[in-house]
Amino acid sequence: MKTGARALGLAESYVGEGGRSTLAGAVVRADRVVDDFRFSSCAVGGSDATTAAIDVWNGLDRPDVRYVLVAGVALAWYNVLDVDRLHDATGRPVLAVSFESSDGLEDAIRREFDDAAAAERLARYRALPERHAVPVNDDTVYVRSVGCDEPARIVQAFTPEGGRPDPLRVAREAARAADRYRRNPEA
User: Would you say domain 6-182 falls under CATH 3.40.50.300?
Assistant: First the structure.
């Protein structure tokens, strides 16, 4: 992959105040250069994570971004992402990356939500593409992808060290910093 290839990393942070989670988008090149940031928010326990992700994409207006990487599929307490809709809106391959092995979220969704809210989340969750283990350096990540023939190569190209792709690492830090600022803008 060329060093100037760009990916948008999307990650969220919630500090436990109010009902909104910060969604940060970070444009990062394969050579680790950070190009841009954009922020949005989504409801904790809501169903608007996909809309917030699309808002970040549209606000950036970066046709040079080739890939969209998202930290997980259940942002902001089971606000389940629709990766097909995100792919359609961006016209880019979408890779949802998680960092732990899991038996899935179905039982937790059923436990946490009433029938109608659970049914909506379960339908979106069940529509997700299959998750595949991808080795990166000395770690393993789990990737669901849409519009991508070689997700392992992309994840590995954007993970020069450690086990977290740089666009997701930078987006997570940006979301956390935005939350710290919201809590205490005078600090």
Answer: no
Q: pTM higher than 0.90 for the full model?
A: yes
Half-sphere exposure of residue 93: CA atoms within 13 angstroms, side-chain side: 18
- Please report, for the chain, the start and end positions of each structural domain, with discontinuous segments joined by +: 6-182
Q: Can you read off the two tokens belonging to residue 117? A: 């809210």
Average pLDDT over residues 163-175: 97
In Å, how far are 51, 86, 175 from 159, measured between CA atoms? Answer: 27, 22, 19
- Residue with token string 């009902």: 19
Structure tokens at 59: 């606000």
Rounded to 5 degrees, φ, ψ at 80 are -75, 130
Per the structure block, which two tokens stand in for 32?
């680790």
